[in-house]
Design goal:
Shape: globular
Number of strands: 8
Structural class: mainly beta
Distance between the termini: 38 Å
């Protein structure tokens, strides 16, 4: 519940998100950077849910040893 952004990302940065509830912000996800998600985030109930030229891509879990 922020007066501005839940997440803000500028290019060329990448933010990886998992298991987040993004709500009650002025803007939930903002910026022109890249967001990667496992697809288990909830972005709802913000004044604006997604703003900017944000790229949101899904990633799958990998186990590297």
């Amino acid at each position: 519940a922020n007066a501005t952004n839940g997440f803000n990302n500028t290019s060329p940065s990448t933010i990886r998100l998992t298991n987040n509830n993004v709500y009650r912000n002025a803007t939930g996800i903002n910026g022109n950077g890249t967001y990667q998600s496992f697809g288990n985030n909830k972005v709802i109930g913000n004044t604006v849910d997604v703003n900017g030229t944000t790229t949101i891509g899904n990633v799958s879990a990998t186990n590297s040893r």
